[in-house]
Amino acid sequence: MYFLDRFAGPPTKFHEKAGEGFFIPVHPEPFRGPRTILRLLLQARRDFLGIWRKTEYEVGYRELKILGRQIVLVNDPDGVKYVMATRHDNYERKSPQMRRALEFLIGDGLFISDGETWKRRRPLVSDIVHKNRLPVYGKVMEKVATEMAERWSRAQAGQTIDMLSEMATLTAEIITRAVFGKDLSREDARQVTEGFTSYQSLIDTLNIGYTLGFDDGLPVKRTKMLRKAVGRVHGVIDRVIDDHLEGRGDHDAMLDLLMRRQEKNPELGLDRSALRNEAATIFMAGYETTAATLTWAWYLLGNAPWAENAMLKELAEVCGDRAPTVGDIPKLDYARAVVEETLRLYPPVAIFARQAREADTVGPYKVKPASIVMAVPWLLHRTPGLWEKPNHFMPERFLKGRPAPYSYIPFAAGPRICAGLQFGLTEAVLCLATFLQRYRIRVVQGAKIEPMARLSLRPRHGLPVTIERR
Ligand code: HEM
Questions:
Q1: What one-character-per-residue DSSP string does 60-122 give?
Q2: Global pTM?
Q3: Ligand 1 — pocket residues by CB below 6 A?
Q4: What are the pLDDT digits (tens) for 60-116?
Q5: 423 CA to middle of ligand 1, Å?
Q6: How many domains does the chain have?
């Protein structure tokens, strides 16, 4: 396929601007010129953010046709409410692209299941990652963040590190300990994280089979490399399941909770593969999203000294010299606003593509069964009719009040809203506060930072930064 890339057109241009008291972080120029099907597909494969025309950043609905397929783009809060909440029954199904891309790794795990399976499992998974359990997981977050901050203190002053991989290590360690238990060895944690990373790099998010007429797309080819990546992840999970079955597991682990629920209610039907799929799902859904959020937050704060100072001032008032704890989170309003603004500008899940079950009307369009209906937080969050100065980094906007309903959807909306919303928000605020209190973090001058959306939205070449003790 790579030889075709030359037909994708010129590479996208990116813009970024900083000045006295303002920062317009990096974003692509809108798409210009003819958008042929080939160009659209190739461009989307290379860079999903660069395919949008200026008019698509306005409130409204659009229809795209790719071969025989209909895609309806909904960039209107009322439309988002209609698709994701009111008619959830018709649009709960993920796109064939997403289902096919992930099925080898997470089977019928919550993230891509629908119908009866989703209905049965959703309350179960929501319950074990619920905010009521945050006091337990909060301790894990505090410990892992403090340990990493300690490790950084041994780094040389001014040393360059890649923040994306640091934040991925951090959040992977938090979620592996939360899901599998605190006794998971470093080596096992590494196997899981590397397995996932390798899987993501090997998988293509476009499914040509769907475009060619197969409503459910075509299965992804299970190459040797892909099988190896999956084997690393499943191997560890299977061993942890055995440990738990033999009574050696950590009772606070999410996996243990799932197994105990199954023991009490056999009608749940959580067999070994279901347990493995849900554990893999929670790990996948929980680690990359938060890692991407934190990475973008460092990029933004490093370029906006006024925001960094406001956050430091608040931290000093709330925590003094001691390290922040989960109990402080409700008082860290500015830090939370930084995280919320980061999620507006760089929503880790940048596209929600759903497949219509039955014929329907969305905005001005007649939607056919099996068509794709899309909400794109990347566009919605940067729509001038909904946001003042949409491309500016302005955490203060989240202190003034809540955004209009269904105009801000980094965690999705309706019944399929992120099950780990409170977990993710708490973790992001706590980790940001822990590191900011101790270190001054600056993006390396001249580093090329470009957002790229694949399964998650992250900086294509990572985020090289220097760290210095305060
Ligand atoms: C800042 C961090 C996070 C963000 C931005 C985020 C965002 C999202 C979004 C947008 C979805 C829906 C995707 C779609 O409909 O296509 C989702 C689903 C989900 N998330 Fe999160 N997430 C985050 C952290 C977490 C964490 C920490 C966990 C677990 C501890 C988690 C567990 C889940 C699960 C299980 C689902 C599937 C829900 C369902 O389909 O019913 N997420 N997340």
A1: EEEEEEETTEEEEEEESHHHHHIIIIITHHHH-SBPHHHHHHHHHHHTT-TTT--HHHHHHHH
A2: 0.95
A3: 110-111, 122, 125, 129, 281-282, 285-286, 289-290, 293, 343, 348-349, 352, 410-412, 416, 418-420, 423-424, 428
A4: 999 988 888 999 999 999 999 999 999 999 999 999 999 999 999 999 999 999 999
A5: 10
A6: 1
